[in-house]
TrEMBL record:
It comes from the Eukaryota. GO terms for molecular function: medium-chain fatty acid-CoA ligase activity. The keyword Ligase applies. Acyl-CoA synthases catalyze the initial reaction in fatty acid metabolism, by forming a thioester with CoA. Has some preference toward medium-chain substrates. Plays a role in adipocyte differentiation. This is Medium-chain acyl-CoA ligase ACSF2, mitochondrial.
Length: 295
């Protein structure tokens, strides 16, 4: 009746709702590709997604819905890519969440593992501490979407004793102390960029490995640490320098509040400050702490 055929795309631009459930199952049964859209997108960003994903049907809230005020927020600064996911990795995005509902759901269904952003996990931990609530069945948390700070990783087992830490392990792995480019593969990975074979070939190799562009090292305990982006590398007199490593060292100084190594974008590549002798040189911007007594 709606003129949709198998393989067509339907979008959802909405806050979390029970109405999502029949929509998801209906799309799966009919072979319709479902495209969840960030509820915080403004109309210009929405128009870009509709065009990019070639969405033929859009589900959205009705009049006087709770999403009216949400759309006043700004969305992302860059245009998103259309990543196609399998049913194994179906993720329905929602930037609004309720700690009480989340904790009640985890408790009611005795959840043993959960997926969330670091912000949501930090928020949940604060809720558990304030209300003196425990989650005895939860022993695993997978955090995605943004970097995980050392403070958050250390805090988790203090609030949730069964969650002993975040670790990346493989059946067999090599200890890599020199930064290498990180490749990933698994059910949670995207299959390809929607209707963009050229871009897909740039980031996924013939064996299905996703080329992240991140530089990482792995220690003897199986811990993986991201050192920076491969395109952020600065070559100083033939030596590879990663800005994040320099920034980390500078921030350890008690007088430094924050540090940023200057990088210039040039044709999708980051370069350092031009130098006639070394080719590139490092330039750091430093913000000092406001100390009462400077040495």
């Amino acid at each position: 009746m709606l003129g949709l055929n198998r393989g067509d795309v339907a979008g959802i631009w909405s806050c979390n709702s029970y109405s999502w459930v029949p929509i998801v199952y209906a799309c799966s049964k009919l072979g319709i590709v479902l495209c969840p859209i960030n509820q915080a997108y403004k109309y210009k960003e929405l128009a870009n997604v509709l065009k990019l994903a070639q969405i033929k049907l859009l589900f959205m809230p009705g009049l006087n819905s709770s999403q009216d005020h949400v759309n006043e927020y700004h969305g992302t600064t860059g245009k998103p890519k259309a990543a196609c996911l399998s049913q194994f990795s179906l993720v329905i995005t929602n930037c609004m969440h309720s700690n009480s509902q989340l904790v009640n759901t985890l408790t009611r269904f005795k959840c043993t593992d959960m997926f969330a952003t670091p912000f949501m996990v930090s928020d949940m931990l604060s809720y558990l501490e304030i209300n003196r609530v425990c989650l005895p069945d939860l022993y695993g948390i997978t955090m995605v979407g943004s970097p995980v700070s050392n403070e958050l990783a250390t805090r988790i087992p203090l609030v949730l004793p069964r969650c002993t830490g975040a670790r990346v392990r493989f059946n067999a792995y090599q200890i890599i102390l020199i930064a290498r480019e990180l490749l990933t593969r698994g059910f949670s990975q995207m299959l390809y960029y929607w209707r963009d074979e050229t871009k897909t070939r740039e980031v996924i190799d013939n064996n299905g490995w996703y080329i992240t562009g991140d530089m990482a090292i792995m220690d003897e305990h199986g811990y993986l640490k991201i050192c920076g982006r491969i395109n952020d590398m600065i070559i100083v007199g033939g030596e590879n320098v990663y800005p994040q490593e320099v920034e980390d060292v500078l921030r350890k100084h008690y007088m430094v509040n924050d540090a940023y190594v200057s990088k210039f974008n040039f044709v999708d590549k980051v370069i350092g400050v031009p130098d006639n002798k070394k080719g590139e040189e490092i330039c750091a911007w430093i913000r000092l702490n406001q100390l009462d007594h400077m040495p």
